[in-house]
Write a structure and sequence with these properties.
Layout: H1 4-18, H2 35-43, H3 48-53, E1 58-59, E2 70-71, H4 92-98, H5 101-124, H6 161-176, E3 189-193, E4 207-208, H7 213-220, H8 222-230, E5 235-238, E6 242-243, E7 246-247, H9 252-262, E8 268-271, H10 278-281, H11 289-299, H12 315-320, H13 326-342, H14 365-378, E9 380-384, E10 398-401, H15 408-412, H16 425-430, E11 438-441, E12 450-454, E13 460-461, E14 464-465, E15 467-472, E16 483-487, E17 491-494, E18 511-519, E19 524-540, E20 543-550, E21 555-562, E22 567-575, E23 583-593, H17 596-602, E24 608-614, E25 631-632, E26 635-636, H18 643-654, E27 658-664, H19 672-677, E28 680-683, H20 691-699, H21 733-736, E29 753-755, E30 759-760, E31 764-765, E32 770-779, E33 785-795, E34 805-814, E35 819-827, E36 832-834, E37 843-845, E38 848-855, E39 863-870
Parallel strand pairs: 3-5, 4-6, 5-8, 10-11, 10-24, 24-27, 27-28, 31-39
Antiparallel strand pairs: 1-2, 6-7, 9-28, 12-23, 13-14, 15-16, 15-18, 17-23, 18-22, 19-20, 19-21, 19-22, 19-23, 25-26, 29-32, 30-32, 32-35, 33-34, 33-38, 36-37, 38-39
InterPro entries: BXL, Fn3-like, GH, Glyco_hydro_3_C, Glyco_hydro_3_C_sf, Glyco_hydro_3_N, Glyco_hydro_3_N_sf, Ig-like_fold
GO molecular function: xylan 1,4-beta-xylosidase activity
Enzyme class: hydrolase
């Protein structure tokens, strides 16, 4: 791994290269000048039209000045996204369950190594700088996961501002590299600023005009402030929705008053993709693109991201009409160009130490081990009746069933890359047991109550089974085809891993036509099952019945009625678009009801069943066009486990099986029924490339679980405020409700711990002081184990504030029969809350009595209390 310590080994390259700088260089080309001086000189040489183009997220090259094409939009949520053969770490919500921000730092140091290596390798091989392989990465997501219905909560570090802040700072420092280095390793981005956590379906129109100041300052803003103040994050992304009638990307209050004036942010503001064009297409606060461009720029948005059609393309017109000055454009462009200079992107590779990171770091053994270590530490044991876990490896037969048991893409989460190899839950369990002792069955779908009997092989074209596929190396099926092939099995095509759809077909900019004829065996409803990234249109007898243009592969069900004996010409038109990897999945057939009788018969003689289910990113995610019962646009309308899975678990319980439920999800599920139908419940999140190995290590006792919930698991929908669009924190998260199914900070171990009486270094604290809390923790069980000591604070008499709020934690590893002191430092600022009696738009420390609560979860029964006076 190319660690920061090795950075200085390469710095000599810069010094030697600097010595060769010639006098003929223009000032902006001189690496010996400051980034500010270089940016200022370059701006003086640009036309207004060129200046505007450099504020696009896909900035074109300007050859006359040697400016290369540059893309601001890459993703590194838990590994370099939309790239192949990279290390895929657990989804952030799983990383948060580790409560290990040091490991998070190491992981994102590794991610930045892999990104730099792949970026420079691509340039050396003649590839242009394109979306998703650049030095600007739009992560971390430090929004607060306030409502379990939000599909993107999986991208966050949970519901707590303090934990989110620590994790976010670790991410940024790992990505950007040491602050005293000349060049940034990457540019990280704090998103989505601010007050954003769903719903997905209304984010382009939503207006949040009743946010209480206390919720704003205590819940929604602390993580952003921490990333600005404590990690020097180089980018902040403004969100889609409006706050107090103003879109976030045109909010002077957010982008100027708070971000720059109060917090001192000096760097770049980027828009969420399409957020500026939303001014006139969705929010209706601007009349057209010209006014939107001026509005966004004047408020402080420096770079505009779009799907198509830049509003900022109209900045020259806005200047000519007097809506803003060219000097205003220059001010924003300074931040844009300084950031590019800071990456070393204008300098020769030999001068930039990060450019020397070799491709050998990508998915190396050290990174693979980190992915496994984090997956293990994320595993959160919620229930273990009669100590059924860990399982005995000598079991003659064990069943592994469920829709997530052998599901590799589920483990990858969202905003993901594709790993070299993935260990599924089934793979992991099979590695623990003798060959032939595992019985596998998918058992049911994630959400659908029916199974599809495929008719793919009943169709034929020119007497050959399946579909005829014709491909063109252009996006509009024009001219001579590149190749035609016959496909006899359901379509499952992808360019991921540099795989061609067929021999000689390009990886980008291609199109395809798939044709067949189907003769209906019965008069019935059939369904077409589709998953597509790109352009897709389905024709039946020359009539278009479905059309999609998706930027991610999502499952789609298209029903269609057929008549017995009638023939149907089926035609699919496909094209790869934009920079997205091409994917096409297609099958069709008859749906039949699920009967668990067959499954139960298959499991005769087997006592223990591991059911791997839950959700996947096919169901929860960002603004998804496909909806199922209980799901809408990537969010959920029901937080229970999908009905088909609940029914399967009930059938297993009724058959007398011992059921271990491995729940894979990026959000909290109301598991009340499952606490009755299952003997053990392991929350496994989306565990990354080694997630299945981590699950197996925990189930069979090779790793003692230590994960703790970073979000509240509610009993039912009744415990959540009805209005998803209401951003009041009342009744949400552990800080404002205290009767959930599983508390924030909760997680079981295979051993037991007891917490003794804590000792405080002082009973009082004043400004600039730090308290030391020493908590004795004993391992009272029979195995080595790790406990997380958590410290919460509550201001006595503060009836409107949180019940408690996390302010510190410490992981301690303890041997059986031993006691260890967990020492947790509490600075004076740990006692800062919002003062409702003053009109101060900030958190302040108020004098008075406070309660320090410490223990092993946020549940009141797991906490002890010490009182302290703040002077």
């Amino acid at each position: 791994m190319f660690t920061v310590k090795r950075y200085w080994l390469f710095s000599v390259l810069f010094l030697s290269a600097l010595a060769t700088v010639t006098a003929q260089q223009l000032p902006y080309q001189n690496p010996g000048l400051s980034f500010e001086e270089r940016a200022k000189d370059l701006i003086s040489r640009l036309t207004l039209e060129e200046k505007a183009s450099l504020m696009f997220d896909q900035s074109p090259a300007i050859p006359r000045l040697g400016i290369k094409k540059f893309n601001w939009w890459s993703e590194a949520l838990h590994g370099l996204a939309n790239n192949d053969s990279v290390t895929v770490f657990p989804e952030p919500i799983g990383m948060a369950a580790s409560f290990n921000n040091d490991l998070v730092y190491s992981i994102f140091d590794a991610v930045s190594d892999e990104t730099r290596a792949k970026y420079h390798n691509a340039l050396r091989n003649g590839q242009e700088n394109k979306r998703f392989l650049s030095l600007s990465v739009w992560t971390p997501n430090v929004n607060i996961f306030r409502d379990p219905r939000w599909g993107r909560g999986q991208e966050t570090y949970g519901e707590d501002p303090y934990l989110t802040s620590l994790m976010g700072v670790a991410v940024v420092k790992g990505l950007q590299g040491p602050e005293d280095a000349k060049y940034r390793k990457l540019l990280a981005c704090a998103k989505h600023y601010a007050v954003h956590s769903g719903p997905e379906w209304s984010r382009h129109e939503l207006n949040l005009n009743n946010i209480a100041p206390r919720d704003l300052w205590e819940t929604y803003l602390p993580a952003f402030k921490s990333l600005v103040k404590d990690s020097d994050v180089r980018q902040v992304m403004c969100a889609y929705q409006r706050l107090d009638d103003e879109p976030c990307c045109s909010s002077s209050r957010l982008l100027q008053t708070i971000l720059r004036e109060q917090w001192g942010f000096k760097y770049l503001v980027v828009s969420d993709c399409g957020a500026v064009t939303d001014f006139y297409t969705s929010h209706k606060v601007s009349s057209d693109a010209v006014h939107a461009a001026a509005k966004g720029t004047l408020a402080g948005t420096d770079v505009e991201c779009v799907w198509q059609g830049y509003a900022y393309e109209h900045l020259p017109e806005a200047v000519s009409r007097g809506l803003l000055s060219e000097q205003e454009v220059d001010k924003h462009l300074m931040r844009v160009l300084e950031a590019r200079f800071e990456l070393g992107e204008f300098d020769e590779e030999a001068q930039v130490p990060w450019a020397q990171i070799p491709m050998s770091v990508v998915n190396n053994e050290e990174h693979r081990q980190m992915a496994l270590d984090m997956a293990r530490q994320s595993m959160t044991l919620l229930q273990n009746n009669n100590a059924i876990l860990p399982l005995n490896k000598s079991a003659k037969k064990i069943a592994v069933i469920g829709p997530n048991a052998d599901n590799a893409p589920m483990l990858w989460g969202n905003y993901n890359g594709k790993p070299v190899r993935t260990i599924t839950i089934l793979n992991g369990i099979e590695s623990k047991l003798p060959a032939g002792s595992v019985v596998y069955d998918k058992a049911c779908d994630l959400v659908e109550n029916k199974l599809t009997q495929s008719y793919f092989k009943r169709a034929a074209f020119n007497g050959k089974t399946g579909f005829k596929a014709t491909y063109w190396n252009n996006p509009d099926r024009s001219g001579n085809p590149a190749i035609s092939v016959q496909i006899s099995d359901p379509l499952k095509l992808t360019t991921a891993g540099q795989h061609e759809f067929a021999s000689g077909v390009k990886l980008e900019g291609f199109s395809g036509l798939y044709e067949t004829v189907f003769k209906a065996p019965e008069t019935e409803e059939i369904v077409f099952k589709v998953g597509v990234t790109g352009y897709f249109e389905l024709f039946i007898n020359n009539e278009s019945i479905a059309k999609y243009n998706n930027w991610r592969t999502l499952p789609t069900r298209i029903p269609y009625n057929v008549e017995k004996g009638k023939t149907y010409k089926i035609e699919i038109r496909y094209a790869q678009l934009n920079n997205w990897q091409a994917n096409l999945e297609f099958d069709f057939g008859k749906e039949v009801d699920i009967d668990f009788t067959v499954l139960i018969n298959k499991l005769k003689g087997i006592d223990t069943v591991i059911f791997a289910g839950g959700l996947s990113t096919l169901l929860e995610g960002e603004e998804m066009p496909v909806s199922y019962p209980g799901f809408k646009g990537g969010d959920r309308t029901d937080i229970e486990l999908p009905e088909v899975q609940r029914n399967c678990l009930k059938a297993l319980k009724a058959a007398g099986k011992k059921v271990i439920f491995v729940n894979c999800s990026g959000s909290a599920i109301a598991l009340m029924p499952e606490t009755q139908s299952c003997d053990a419940i392991l929350q496994a999140w989306y565990g990354g490339e080694s997630g299945g190995q981590a699950v197996a290590d925990v189930l069979f006792g090779d790793f003692n679980p230590s994960g703790k919930l970073p979000i509240t698991f509610y009993k039912s929908m009744k415990q959540i405020p009805d209005d998803f669009e209401d951003y009041s924190m009342k009744g949400r998260t552990y800080r404002f409700m205290d009767d959930p199914l599983f508390q924030f900070g909760y997680g079981l171990s295979y051993t037991s711990f007891s917490v003794g009486k804590a000792r405080l270094s002082s009973s009082k604290i004043k400004k600039d002081e730090t308290l030391s809390l020493t908590v004795p923790v004993s391992n009272t069980g029979k195995r080595n184990g790790t406990e997380l000591v958590q410290v919460y604070i509550h201001k006595t008499g503060d009836v409107n504030g949180p019940l408690k709020t996390l302010k510190g934690f410490k992981k301690v590893e303890i041997k059986p029969g031993k006691t260890t002191d967990a020492v947790i430092e509490l600075p004076y600022t740990a006692f800062a809350f919002y003062n409702e009696n003053d009109n101060i738009q900030e958190l302040t420390v108020m004098p008075g009595e406070y309660e320090i609560l410490y223990g092993t979860s946020s549940a009141q029964k797991d906490l002890k209390t010490i009182k302290i006076t703040v002077n």
